[in-house]
Amino acid sequence: MEEKNNAVDAELVEEQDKQVDNEPVETNNEQSTNELEEKINLLQSEKEEIYNRLLRLQAEFDNYKKRTLKEREADRKYKAQDLVQELLPAIDNFERALQVEVTEETKSLIDGITMVHKQLIEALKSQGVEIIETEGKDFDPNLHHAVMQVEDDSIESDKIVEELQRGYMLNDRVIRPAMVKVNK
């Protein structure tokens, strides 16, 4: 019976060998190589993703630096704007006071007002404030505010005839447009 069992075992072994020969068998080396290639591919894709994220963050940071630099420059350039806007009504009142007819009694008062007015204008100029030129100039809606129109054939069309209220600029920004009378 043992011989019979041995014969059956031999047949089974032969049959298994045939099946093994027909099927491609992967060895441990091939399996580990495939696993390593998969891990390498995964790591490379992760590296590329992280590198792209780093590039985006770096670009965002550069944009942030540029934006904050521009904001600081604008703050420095226009730091006097609020103060100028607060002082303009006082300067307007000084100019109205200077339009009063000078008499012997008011001469010294007008001289004092003139000196203070000049000091204020000089202080504003030192901060970058300029008076907008008006009379005889072409009307510019960016600089001037037309409140009246006149018809005068001796003056060109769209020329400023009279300044009703001074306009001011701080560096390149209009603080207050000049109120003017324009020829049609």
UniProtKB/TrEMBL annotation:
Residues 25-34 have a biased composition (Polar residues). Residues 1-36 are annotated as: Disordered. It holds the Pfam family GrpE. PROSITE patterns: GRPE (PS01071). Keywords: Chaperone, Cytoplasm, Stress response. Participates actively in the response to hyperosmotic and heat shock by preventing the aggregation of stress-denatured proteins, in association with DnaK and GrpE. It is the nucleotide exchange factor for DnaK and may function as a thermosensor. Unfolded proteins bind initially to DnaJ; upon interaction with the DnaJ-bound protein, DnaK hydrolyzes its bound ATP, resulting in the formation of a stable complex. GrpE releases ADP from DnaK; ATP binding to DnaK triggers the release of the substrate protein, thus completing the reaction cycle. Belongs to the GrpE family. It is found in: Cytoplasm. CDD domains: GrpE. This is Protein GrpE. It comes from the Bacteria. Homodimer. Coiled coil: none annotated. Its main location: cytoplasm.
